[in-house]
Amino acid sequence: MPAFVTLDSVSVRLPDGRSLFDTLTLALGPERTGLVGRNGTGKSTLLKLISGEVAPSAGAVSVSCRLGVLRQAYGAQETAADLCGCADDLTRLARIEAGEGSEDDFALADWDLEARLASALADVGLPGLDLQRPAASLSGGQTTRAALAGLIALKPDLLLLDEPTNHLDAEARAMVAELIGGWKGGALVVSHDRELLRRMDRIVELSGLGARVYGAGYELYVERK
Q1: Alpha-carbon distances, residue 96 vs 79, 85, 115, 130, 153 (angstroms)
Q2: What percent of the chain has pLDDT over 90?
Q3: pTM of the model
Q4: Spatial distance between the Cα atoms of 158 and 28, rounded to a whole number of angstroms
């Protein structure tokens, strides 16, 4: 299958002139990839390159799929629906239900979004979450789980997850690992969580020498290391 994302000879140089990584080449498809490496090797930057938040100093990044990005920061006025990334879509459905929908609303409506979102929220341990609830009233763990539920409900081709089990207790970490383990699309996951990494199809280790791919998951990566 064609790659969802291709990084071709990508280099990133920091403002002080140091090179974060140089001529990095990597392809991502429908598999679940765990991204590991020492702190400071550029794991989070690599996700930002793919999402378009950061431009490479050299080389090219090609994206030919729908991305789902786990956000790390939220605005003070946002609601749970904003956390889920579904606020506009839900507002559109509400207008249609109220008899105020436009032609564009009907053309763009995601008719079963509410059912998918309710199912995803239950899967992450937030059944019945009030989507108009202020995001600031949720704990850090609830915020992460709500954002993950929204990503799953929107069904992107490739998930970009940066430490998705941070700020979660052991039960919630296990729940997220199970959720990602059952994900049928592609995923690029930055994590130090071994249980989550065991659910990956392959491991990519990032270092100053570039990206090295280890197939078959975390246990094989540990054995080869």
Answers
A1: 21, 19, 16, 20, 20
A2: 68
A3: 0.90
A4: 9
